[in-house]
Amino acid sequence: MDTVRYYDIRHVRGSATHVDIDNGVVESAGTSFYDHAVVRVLGPKGWGILTMENLDPAALPEPLVREALSLALITDDPVDLADAPRGILPLPGVGEDPLDVSLEEKTALLAGIEEAAHLPEIVNTRARYAESIEEVRFCDSSGIEYTYAIPRCGFSVLAVAARNGEMQMGRESHYTIRGLNLRHRQDLGERAAQTAIALLDARAAKGGRMRAVLDPELAGVFAHEAVGHASEGDLIREGNSVLAGRTGEAIGSQVLTIVDDPSLPEFGFEPVDAEGVAVSRTELIRAGRVNAFMHTRQTLAAVGNGAAGHARASAGDQPLVRMSNTYIEEGDSSYDEILAECRSGILLKGSRGGQVDPGRGVFQFNAEYGYIIEDGEIGQMVRDVSLSGDILSTLHAITLVGDDRRMHEGYCGKGGQSVPVSDGSPHIFLEDAMVGGNGSD
Amino acid sequence: MDLIEEILRAGEKQADEVEVYISEAESVSADLKRTHVETASGSKGFGIGIRVIAGGRIGVSSTGSPRDWRACLDAACASARLAHPQEWGGLPSPAALPPVPPIRDPRVALDPAWARNVLEEMLEGAGEHDAAVTGGSASASQSRIRIANTSGVLYEQERTSVGCSIECINERSTGYEFDASPYLEIDPRRTGERAAFFAEHGAVGEEIESGNYDLVLSPVALTQLLSHVLEPALSGRNVHAGRSWLAGKLGEECIGENLSIMDDPSRKAPGSTRFDAEGVPARRITFFDGGVLEAYAYDLRTAYRYGQESSGSAVRGGPGGAPSIGIHTLVIDGRRDTVDDDPAVYVHDLIGAHTANPITGDFSVELSNASWVADGEFETPVRSAMFAGNVFDLLSSVAAIDRDERIVGTAVLPRVRLNSQHIIGK
Asked: Which of A208, A272, A383, A420 could join A88 in a cystine, given CB atoms 3.0 to 4.6 angstroms apart?
């Protein structure tokens, strides 16, 4: 097999446990099992990739490598791999191991959170717990081998309020790698309900250009959608990012530094990346300038500028360049200073997710709700409010960055794969934002 | 003993009823990075889903390993012990299944060279316009599912699917197109040509003033809004739980009177099926007839709970997925017409449709590949704009339904013309 330039095998075995409580009824609670392996072979040109279930860890890799090589032989893209530092981080400590708590007790704890959302005017509540315990084994043709097991768990709670035929929802969630997080969390159930009830009195936001303050959760999603995706080395290589070729260029105000760091013990933590490369902090934007891109070994070799260690993969899928923990670094403005500077505009809070077209440089994402800002004070609540715009001009519009960074957890989709991530930011002020909503004066 | 038989017999000793769902799939695919084939992949998948019912308590589990079925069965039984009991009328018995066009095309072969040829044809198509290809993909798969239960159901269905997709860029204008079918009937050349056309066409876009405009939504844009808002609103579970805008509105005119919306599992489409994911015969459901809400979608669990009848609407996300309520093949009908003779803003794609409010139907999205159209021709492209509205209001504003339709995911949808929709320009 002398045409095999490299191979690796990533074998992931795991269990997925869930609880689903709908309006006080335990609809479903149970555990399922999976066992996926991906064999990647770099042939004379490109990759051959084989995906299968139930790989015998003791089996010799040669037959699988030969089979993947036969696939690689139809490729014609000259792929090279950059050298990259290897190494694995210790796992962050776990408070209460979810494996030590019975499914019955998890169900009872989740029921308590759901119960807390039963406030007047709430017509439906739903709480879901999800836990995955994953064992990852990685080995490659250079003799590198790593194994680790990581627990990820968390819950979400949804409350729907209704009055006079009008319905609104509130949602809260928390996911972590630090152990079971279901105890003493009734406050989140109550908060979801309070948001839903408050939204019954909110009016639809009127869209248009205005000054905007983004809360830490939404600003974190902004960093992820508007800058993070456009800084992924595969998109840079394909010519599908507005940030390609702009290294060193000032694309935002000097107060803005945006980082992706898989080594942080947040929900997007990876002790080692999906091709066995050591993970580290990458400053995507430093003081408003394009600084570095996120890479796999392949995209680092093709593009340069940045660091490998950003390869991630869902169980049974091939590694892609992905974000992990992405955030805007703290600035020196207080929340009150930001509101005062805004004078009149809109405060956008929470996130229902977003999407970006990195080639076109256009992003869109939805806040869960917002407030009108008048004379530097928080005013009327508004619902169904979104933010969209051009990445490059929007980054210049950020003129103040707060000192109150917080991180939020979620999942990010790309190439049909979904991986756990966290995003974060302090409050930020945009002096010119494109806000969407279907309300009128 | 056959694996299914073995699981059913072992499960019967621990529960009142047992259901086994086995999914097997093989696929090949090849990926393009710019103009080169970077990756060729092959996969083999297997999954067992086990569901047990004991005293009205439903438990589920799944595994990817045929060797681990006993642990999976035990986990399903443990799961049932935790669930609340509910009214339950039994798993379905064998029944006559409706005829459906075959969804397996024997011509679909799992050959990486075929995938490579598809990529090359897409590249040729893309070469007709001034745009650079950034990436693309071609795939073919064969799959077989079997569902069996202790009431005697044992159904099997084989299906094939092929698909291709491509992305292009010209300056800061991007174009994305795809084609998919259960049959060897995709058109890679046209897929490449369309993606490159949108990238080239959008490069010279102009801004649009905020205001109300007539829109033509492509089947792609339409399905994005419907799948995130309309499909959940039709789910019997959401309706009875008070999470649907359509709750309590049976018999009311909820959308435009010229519009009917159905689930038609007998259509020649990727979601076509003779039986649903829990072994109930699939059937055509008319959700809206001339704008009037006629039906919701039910699986067995929801139907028994609320004194309804299953509409054969159970679907599974994969071999590990428990059955849930879904739509097999979403179809829109009504009087057919031309949609783009009079000037309108054509919207090919949307950014952020998944952020729509699934309960109220309110949405605010960014347009992608938008362009003025008139007399069926693309005219000046629209550089950038937001579109805010409500999905149910939008369905009341449908002024015309196109004669052509296309497969998007599991839906088969036409282009629709909408009157006076609010656009936020620059």
From this structure: A272
- Closest-CA distance, B16 to chain A, in angstroms, reads 17
Chain B neighbours among A 68-107 (CB < 8 Å)? 68, 71-72, 74-79, 103-104, 107
3-class DSSP assignment, residue A441: coil
Q: Where are the domains of chain A?
A: 6-201, 204-438
DSSP H stretches of helix in A116-151: none
Kindly tell me the sign of the dihedral angle through the C-alpha atoms of B413, B418, B422, B426.
positive
Residues 6+ apart with CB under 8 A from B186: B118, B162, B163, B164, B179, B180
Summarize pLDDT for A98-115 with one digit per residue, the tens.
999 999 999 999 999 999
A103-115 and B69-82 helices cross at what angle (nearest 10)? 40
Let me know the angle formed at the C-alpha of A224 by A218 and A227, rounded to the nearest 5 degrees.
Answer: 115
| Record: contact A47-B39, CB cut-off 8 A | yes
> Is it the case that residue B318 has pLDDT exceeding 70?
no
Show residues of chain B in contact with A167, CB under 8 Å: 242-243, 245, 359-360
Distance CA A32, CA A53 (A): 15
Q: What backbone phi and psi angles, to 5 degrees, belong to A64?
A: -70, -40
Q: Which residues of B400-415 are buried (b: 16+ CB within 10 A; e: fewer)?
A: bbbeebbbbbbbbbbb
Sequence-distant (6+) residues with CB within 8 A of A275 are: A8, A138, A140, A296, A297, A308, A311, A319
Mean pLDDT calculated for residue range B294-323? 92
Residue pairs spanning A and B at CB distance below 8 A: 253
Nearest to B49, CA basis, from B21, B91, B9:
B21
Please compute Rg for chain A using Cα positions. Answer: 23
Residue of B70, B386, B418 to mutate, interface with A, max A Cβ within 10 Å: B386
Dihedral angle at the C-alpha atoms of A313, A318, A319, A323, nearest 10 degrees? -50
User: What span, in angstroms and rounded, lies between the C-alpha atoms of A170 and A173?
Assistant: 10
Cα-flanking dihedrals φ and ψ of residue B148, to 5°? -145, 150
- The first and second tokens of residue B312, run together, are 């054969």
C-alpha to C-alpha distance for A133 and A315, rounded to whole angstroms: 12
User: Mind listing the pLDDT tens digit for each residue in A318-354?
Assistant: 999 999 999 999 999 999 999 999 999 999 999 988 8
- In this prediction the pTM is 0.94
pLDDT of residue A417: 95
Residue B30's H or E segment, with its range, is strand B17-33
Question: What 3-state class would DSSP assign to A243?
Answer: coil
Q: Residue B7 phi/psi, 5° resolution?
A: -65, -45
pLDDT at A365: 87
Asked whether residue A441 carries a pLDDT value surpassing 60, the answer given is no
pLDDT at A436: 86
Tokens of A345: 């505009």
Cβ–Cβ under 8 Å, residues B122 and B164: yes
Tell the residue number behind the tokens 């950014």, with chain if given. Answer: B351
Residue at B204: amino acid letter = V
User: Region A402-420: what's the mean pLDDT?
Assistant: 96
Shortest distance between the Cα of B367 and any Cα of chain A, in A, equals 10
The CA distance from A140 to A38, in Å, is: 12
Residue B263 has pLDDT above 90, yes or no: yes
The CATH architecture one would assign to domain A6-201 is: 2-Layer Sandwich (3.30)
